[in-house]
DNA sequence: CCCTTCATGTCACTCGGTGACATCTTGACA
DNA sequence: TGTCAAGATGTCACCGAGTGACATGAAGGG
């Protein structure tokens, strides 16, 4: 129940942060401001988040784990393009569900260089995870060929492109159509291994 | 000739920075240290570089322009996979030439999260440039289909994978072989448009 | 009722990064 | 040669991110 309080404070902080950052822009909001709004001190903020960027990027952190889990759950015989498409579709669907909030966060990230950089770095981790899972799935040695890594990279590249178009159109374009379109392009490379 | 002096100071600064950063690690070196080593003040450092990361990433900055230029220079009828492979090969060849220095810089970037993040962000810019060039090359509307962006992303993705392997093997693996291997994987998607 | 533990606040500090201002160089021009 | 304008630099003061040390205070367990 101490644990419950921790999660409560964390929520309060992300809430305050997203609100303020979306409203005034990344650089115009200080951590003191965020912390005070959430009712804690600046020091406490840093006990929950490692950096100012983290409070935003963390908001999307589970996506990586979700994707890997979905990939691991796909049937063994399924073609890589199909399996990866389903894996990438999971976080996209999550976005589409909470489109109000998710859209604002994604736009904030893509438009703020500091956040975008951190986001890409995190994605590099996802890519390695996906590559490992894919290699395991196909019975390949992850360190010999480049295929697993390239395939995972292509999937995430598609993910980024979709996210970009989706946020650029203010949620107007249909994410599912975009994903299918993107995977139609990359599938020939994914499925010829 | 004032311009020549500026370039001289800039060189002095990057020199000092790369030396110290590679030696002691990114976080263990202050900007005061770098500036003093180069014989200028901290303030002057920031008149040449926007941030601590910049002095390292800038070192690879021309790569983006080089790639785009090479892509623009490839014969019009050439298949995308071939043209992009040559474009990506340019910075790789540059690395292989100055392998002593380039290797240390690349390793520093890939191992330092803050630098890696900035590097990826810069690459996103390269990707958009490449995508624009590719769209122009193929007579496509850059904003309608996802192909140009995905193709550029795949090429850079291959670039990253090669860089990663090359630096991970301390320059042991042959970059040219790695590039061919990587493009053999992604070519089916690049050339089916 | 005490004691331990854990979260928090406060304080002081380092360092990245910026704006303002004074100084110094340098080259142009009379 | 003397002067003036422009640009580069140093100094100083400042803000904000991030960290370490320490004291406090609340919850739970004996």
TrEMBL record, chains A, B:
Domain HTH tetR-type: 7-67
Entry annotated with the keyword Protein biosynthesis: no
DNA-binding region residue numbers: 30-49
InterPro entries: DNA-bd_HTH_TetR-type_CS, Homeodomain-like_sf, HTH-type_TetR-like_transc_reg, HTH_TetR, MftR_C
PROSITE patterns (alphabetical): HTH_TETR_1, HTH_TETR_2
GO molecular function: DNA-binding transcription factor activity; transcription cis-regulatory region binding
Keyword vocabulary terms for this entry: DNA-binding, Transcription, Transcription regulation
Protein name from the UniProt record: TetR family transcriptional regulator
Species whose genome carries this gene: Streptomyces triculaminicus
């Amino acid at each position: 129940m101490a644990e419950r309080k921790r999660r409560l404070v964390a929520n309060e902080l992300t809430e305050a942060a997203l609100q303020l950052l979306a409203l005034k822009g990344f650089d115009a909001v200080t951590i003191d401001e965020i912390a005070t709004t959430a009712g804690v001190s600046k020091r406490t903020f840093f006990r929950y988040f490692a950096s100012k960027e983290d409070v935003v990027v963390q908001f999307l952190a589970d996506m990586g784990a979700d994707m890997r889990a979905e990939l691991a759950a796909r049937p063994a015989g399924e073609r890589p393009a199909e399996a990866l498409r389903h894996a990438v579709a999971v976080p996209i669907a999550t976005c589409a569900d909470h489109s109000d909030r998710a859209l604002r966060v994604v736009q904030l990230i893509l438009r703020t260089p500091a956040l975008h950089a951190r986001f890409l770095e995190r994605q590099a981790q996802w890519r390695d995870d996906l590559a490992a899972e894919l290699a395991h799935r196909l019975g390949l040695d992850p360190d010999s060929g480049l295929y697993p890594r390239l395939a995972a990279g292509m999937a995430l590249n598609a993910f980024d492109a979709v996210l970009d178009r989706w946020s650029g159109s203010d949620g107007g374009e249909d994410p599912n159509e975009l994903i299918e379109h993107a995977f139609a392009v990359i599938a020939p490379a994914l499925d010829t291994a």
